[in-house]
Description:
Elements: E1 6-8, E2 16-18, E3 24-25, H1 30-40, H2 42-49, H3 63-76, H4 84-87, H5 91-97, H6 105-113, H7 117-138, E4 142-149, E5 152-153, E6 162-164, E7 169-172, E8 175-179, E9 185-189, H8 201-215, E10 220-225, H9 232-240, E11 244-249, H10 253-261, E12 275-283, E13 292-300, E14 308-314, H11 322-330, H12 334-346, H13 356-380, H14 390-398, E15 402-406, E16 411-415, H15 422-433
Parallel strand pairs: 4-10, 10-11
Antiparallel strand pairs: 1-2, 3-15, 4-8, 5-7, 6-7, 8-9, 11-14, 12-13, 13-14, 15-16
Helix pairs in contact: 1-15, 2-7, 3-13, 7-13, 8-9, 12-13
Amino acid sequence: MATLHEIKTKFNSNLTISNTGGNISNDCGLILVKEFMDSLDFTALSRKHLTIKDARLYHTHTNLSLMEQLIYQIIAGYTTDSAATLLKEDPAFKILFGKNRLASQPSLSRFWNRISKDNISQFQDLNQAMIDKVRLVRNTTEMIFDLDSTHSDTYGKQELSSYNAHYGTNGYHPLVAFDGLTGDFLKAELRPGSVYTSNGVGDFVAPLFKHYQQVVPDSNILVRGDSGFATPELYELCEAYSSFYVIRLKSNAILFKIAEKNIQVDDDTHWEKREVSYSSTLYQANSWSKARRICIKSTREAVELISRHEYIVTNYSNNVSAETVFQTYCKRGAMENFIKEAKSGFNLDKTDSSSFVENQARMMVSLLAYNIVNFMRTLCLPVKSAGMRVDTIRLRLFKIAGKVVQTGRRLLLKTSSSHVYQEHFFQLLQKIQQLHW
């Protein structure tokens, strides 16, 4: 009699499918992640920066081990804690931790319950320590703080969940910062859903400025943000730390009049062609302490009479043309891909817990998982492959079938001989092992 675990196929009645393959895993490629995290000394960094209060009298799995297991599950693409119910017996996962049995779903769920508010800032300290270590290898002093907010939907009565009019749904409204040059996830902060985009942005960005001023005094930092971040608090903060900024402004009647004065129309105007012009001037809003440079892009579509104006406030000098300022701002569009990758690939917007702090912790663990993969692909993959999305990396390098064979002296992980990307796999493994921190 056929069961859910033994089913005959219709296309070939002699073929039966069962899940009794035994000591086989389809996640053997996670060995690459383990090798990279070991090279990064992730476990030691975690012990240094993360201290979770634990009242358990007896336990098999430490809190740091539970966190690492969650990171591996996220990187492998398992979106729920309950995946651990089967993964705890997976041979590849057991090799990663050197254990005969991993933590089950209840153990992982209880881990979230032990997280406190202090641990949230510790997660950020751990993330910063990783970024600092990777920056030494990259040997660069340039950074771009790309600021944005996003939305995390909630589907129950989660603490501090509220309605956001812009997104038209209930949830949270996280504030995020990425490095526009590398894609590194610099920082994230979970906020109630009704909070405005720029609310608290000064307190959010100031620690980043302060840290990099101490660690890399000669660093060149540019801040980019959309019109939601057009606030004097952010301008003044950038100016205080001698950093440049390009931030979009919302249109108003005064800006429109200034832009219209720069439009030149004469008998030689070719109305049948699209025209784009750039200009800049000094402008001071009522809430600003001083006048600042604004750059204007005026676009008239073909056969149209009226131009559409866009505005950017910046502290770049006039030596940088208005067109260059707009080109610099437009590159911020890559951040939308970073956010999409973090949410769809690493469950950044997962809000399974009823507690706000626990949902913050889930977001931070997803942030760590995102950065580990981003570090690995930007440092170790060939330039032409460094832009691959995590879904592609999983398919080619992580989702590899294999089995574990233990002899008297050795532990062998035998991967599939027909793995199409096996050459890339071993090249990446060698590159990871050649890293010097």
